[in-house]
């Protein structure tokens, strides 16, 4: 049975490479998290907003559990979170909806890869719990994606009007001074939806030219909800424009002392740890890499691959028996000339690489090549063997020819060079 160990080593290395690739990709959440996730470092992520608040001294956190159990005076931040029961109240706006995968013009919040299966919607129980949390005196930042209504907006008494997807970037200004726009002169972002507000709402930002509200604060019980129809305003690429960054700092400060909990559970991230997450967190991937390196070194230290070698005694006895049997066949059949030709051809093939020639080269050309490379002794020996092979007629001549060939082989690697090959006479 053939030795399958090399295949096992190669398979193990391939598996380690695949797992390593997934491990590295899992560690780089900034590339595959959903748009407006605080883990995403791409232009459409919200990592810059999270870091901006953190570096500005605001207490921030990432929520990785559902919103059925809320505790503490935290201000929730929901960025592009789908809500169950979303609907379009105005059929005319449905015709304005862009095709899927249209970026900011799409009505459905985009998901990356397997997040389309892992990301969950905000269900009715969570909506009720969030509203109860706000009524108790806490705050909420809600940035819906698209212009569809949903139970959360319905509870706030607010509807959305879809903005024309062909409109360029809009300049947003504060219609009246408020703590939410402290130090803000203008904000620049693409608008997805304009807000239709209830009577008790306060407009925070409106389109400078169209005069329609884009961001507003709605009081709910003892708390407040900041709703924005421009999700791009929270994206990494938008914070460097105009006073966008200052607007977020002023709005978060005005909403309360925090901590500000950015919801990541509904973007597909949970507190449940997988083996890969555990390895990445505690550095166990380095231990796995060291183990694989040890396996590779151990595999390289083995003597050989392939079939198991027979015992030395069995090999010697078997070779001797085969030699005696072959010699008897040649003697009985009077094949001295044929055997001499085999000996001469074998020596020629062995010396051909030393002369820089292929193994099928003639003895004369091999001898010429050996002389050109300074091995006149081998060239003379090869020619002598070739001449003797033509004159072999009996066993004594064949034995003398084999002895001469063996002497030539001994001169291929002179004694003391340490380059003798095992098994070479």
Structural write-up:
With 425 residues, the chain is α/β, with parallel strands linked by helices. 41% of the residues lie in helices and 12% in strands. The chain has 14 helices and 11 strands. It has helices at residues 5-27, 47-55, 91-94, 115-118, 124-135, 151-156, 244-255, 275-282, 284-301, 312-333, 336-351, 363-372, 376-390, 395-410; strands at residues 60-63, 75-79, 139-143, 159-162, 170-173, 187-189, 193-196, 202-207, 213-220, 223-228, 260-263. Strand 9 and strand 10 (223-228) form a beta hairpin. Helix 1 (5-27) packs antiparallel against helix 9 and helix 12 packs antiparallel against helix 13 (376-390). The longest helix has 23 residues, at 5-27. The chain is rod-shaped.
Q: Give the distance, in angstroms, between the N- and C-terminal Cα atoms.
A: 30 Å
- What's the helix-strand series? HHEEHHHEHEEEEEEEHEHHHHHHH
- Percentage of residues in strands: 5-15%
Spatial strand sequence of the major β-sheet: 1-11-2-3-10-9-8-5-6
Provide the fold topology.
Layout: H1 5-27, H2 47-55, E1 60-63, E2 75-79, H3 91-94, H4 115-118, H5 124-135, E3 139-143, H6 151-156, E4 159-162, E5 170-173, E6 187-189, E7 193-196, E8 202-207, E9 213-220, E10 223-228, H7 244-255, E11 260-263, H8 275-282, H9 284-301, H10 312-333, H11 336-351, H12 363-372, H13 376-390, H14 395-410
Parallel strand pairs: 1-11, 2-3, 2-11, 3-10
Antiparallel strand pairs: 4-7, 5-6, 5-8, 8-9, 9-10
Q: Could you give a quick summary of the protein structure above?
A:
The chain is of the alpha/beta class and 425 residues long.
């Amino acid at each position: 049975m053939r030795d399958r160990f090399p295949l096992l080593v190669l398979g193990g290395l391939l598996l380690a490479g695949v797992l390593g690739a997934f491990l590295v990709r899992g560690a780089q959440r900034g590339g595959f998290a959903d748009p407006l996730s605080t883990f995403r470092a791409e232009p459409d992520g919200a990592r810059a907003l999270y870091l901006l608040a953190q570096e500005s001294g605001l207490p921030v956190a990432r929520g990785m559990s559902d919103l059925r159990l809320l505790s503490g005076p935290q201000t929730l931040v929901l960025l592009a979170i789908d809500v169950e029961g979303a609907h379009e109240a105005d059929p005319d706006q449905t015709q304005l909806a862009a095709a899927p995968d249209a970026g900011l013009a799409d009505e459905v919040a985009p998901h990356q890869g397997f997040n389309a299966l892992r990301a969950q919607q905000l269900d009715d129980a969570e909506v009720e719990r969030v509203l109860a949390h706000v009524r108790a005196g806490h705050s909420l930042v809600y940035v819906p994606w698209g212009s569809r209504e949903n139970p959360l907006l319905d509870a706030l008494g607010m509807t959305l009007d879809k903005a024309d997807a062909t409109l360029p970037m809009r300049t947003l200004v504060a219609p009246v001074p408020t703590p939410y726009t402290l130090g803000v002169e203008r904000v620049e972002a693409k608008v997805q939806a304009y807000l239709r507000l209830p009577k008790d709402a306060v407009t925070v930002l409106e389109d400078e030219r169209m005069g329609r509200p884009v961001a507003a604060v709605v009081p709910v019980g003892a708390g407040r909800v900041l709703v924005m129809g421009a999700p791009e305003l929270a994206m990494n690429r938008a914070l460097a424009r105009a006073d966008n960054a200052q607007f977020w700092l002023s709005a978060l400060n005005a909403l309360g002392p925090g901590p500000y909990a950015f919801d990541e559970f509904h973007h597909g991230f949970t507190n449940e740890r997988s083996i890969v997450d555990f390895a990445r967190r505690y550095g166990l991937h380095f231990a796995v890499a060291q183990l694989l390196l040890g396996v590779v070194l151990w595999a390289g230290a083995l003597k050989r691959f392939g079939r198991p070698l027979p015992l030395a005694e069995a090999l010697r006895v078997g070779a001797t028996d085969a030699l005696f049997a072959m010699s008897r066949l040649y003697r009985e059949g009077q094949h001295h000339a044929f055997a001499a030709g085999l000996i001469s051809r074998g020596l020629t093939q062995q010396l051909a690489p030393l002369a820089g020639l292929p193994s099928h080269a003639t003895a004369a050309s091999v001898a010429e090549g050996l002389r050109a490379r300074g091995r006149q002794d081998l060239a003379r020996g090869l020619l002598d063997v070739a001449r003797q092979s033509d004159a072999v007629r009996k066993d004594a001549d064949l034995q003398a020819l084999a002895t001469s060939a063996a002497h030539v082989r001994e001169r291929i690697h002179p004694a003391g060079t340490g380059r003798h090959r095992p098994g070479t006479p």
